[in-house]
Amino acid sequence: MVGQRYLTLLRDHPWFRLSFVAASPRSAGLRYAEAVEGRWHQTTEIPAEFRDLILADASDPAAAEGRCSLVFSCLEAGKAEIQALELAWAAAGHPLVSNSSAHRGTADVPMIVPEINPGHAALIDVQRRRRGFTTGFVAVKPNCSVQSWLAPVHALREAGYAIDRLVVNTFQAASGAGHPGVASLDLIDNMVPYIGGEEEKTEREPLKILGRIEGEDLVEAEEPRISAHCNRVPVSDGHGAAVSLGFSGKKPALAEVAAIWRAFRGEPQERGLPLAPPSPIILREELDRPQPRRDRDAGGGMAVSVGRLRSCPVLDLRFFGISHNTVRGAAGGAILMAELLAARGYLP
User: Fold this and answer.
1) N or C: which end of the chain has fewer CB within 10 A?
2) Are residues 156 and 303 in the same domain?
């Protein structure tokens, strides 16, 4: 489903032209339309210009030689297999931006949210030196649910407020499990308070994103301490997050928080990158917003909508966030990262 979302987002992209597609050996040699027949899950038809692309074998990076200056990876396989294959593509000279979690914990692989830590792109230089890569590299995007709340937290930290405690309860859409995903009888009239590995990712990945580079090493942030509860809910698209924050020093007034969020911009907005939403954080004033169905497509699906901003009687502040999990949280977030890396000179 993420691969399909890539196709819909790349169809009219002003910088990138899709010229090559690869999949498992069992699909290699098929036309793309044949390979996804009966399994196309987007609301629009397969873009006509991609229907007749012949699928190559994703285990053979040589098949893309001379045909790609950038590769997007959204493989389904075991962690070790994905790690080895993505490094093989990088070693073959391909810049690779991945949706997979396989390399998120790899020390010299940057995990980037373009508005939060664009400077972590410098790890690509470290990775190339250490591994002997020339034009190739591996860069990854974080867990999709993290993007529904981390930008508002980062904006407050950037404004000088020290957050030392964070409790997040995520409400994650069915599409986050892929297709066929969670069985309908498990999700209709129900919610599932467990997503394998999700709470661990939610508690760990933000600390790498919020970390700093010292010399050639990335030092993870020590704060905030994060406690996560992750739930699967009967929503098609749009991950939600209920967040409570605790501050170790001065606490911002609610009006100041609102002003910080409204004013927040990052490098993608400053550079005018094609997929960058004009306002990466959109504050809703209504008591019952944001909602997945009404707010997941804000900013072309690339903005984070926040609301329910109020004081917290246990910690200090609380809010609710929504982002589109297969756009900002998956394919769109990876494309925006690739735009950032292109603007910074990392693509040939």
Assistant:
1) C
2) yes
- Token pair of 109, please? 């692989």
Work out whether strand 239-247 and strand 163-172 pair parallel, antiparallel, or are unpaired: antiparallel
Domain count, the chain: 2
Active site residue 239: yes
Same domain as 206, residue 122 = no
| CATH code of the domain in which 296 resides | 3.30.360.10
Within a domain: 97: yes
What is the value of pTM for the model shown?
0.96
Report pLDDT digits (tens) over 205-222.
999 999 999 999 999 999
CA distance 70 to 72: 7
CA distance 303 to 43: 20
| Coil/strand/helix, residue 78 | coil
Out of 144, 154, 230, 324, pick the active-site residue. 144
Instruction: Using alpha carbons, select from 153, 115, 125 the residue that is nearest to residue 280.
Output: 115
Catalytically annotated residue among 94, 103, 154, 239:
239
Is residue 245 domain-resident?
yes
Length of the chain as a residue count:
348
DSSP 237: S
Alpha-carbon gap, residue 101 to 110, rounded angstroms: 12
**Which percentage of the chain shows pLDDT scores above 70?**
100
Angle at Cα 113 formed by Cα 173 and Cα 290, nearest 5°?
40
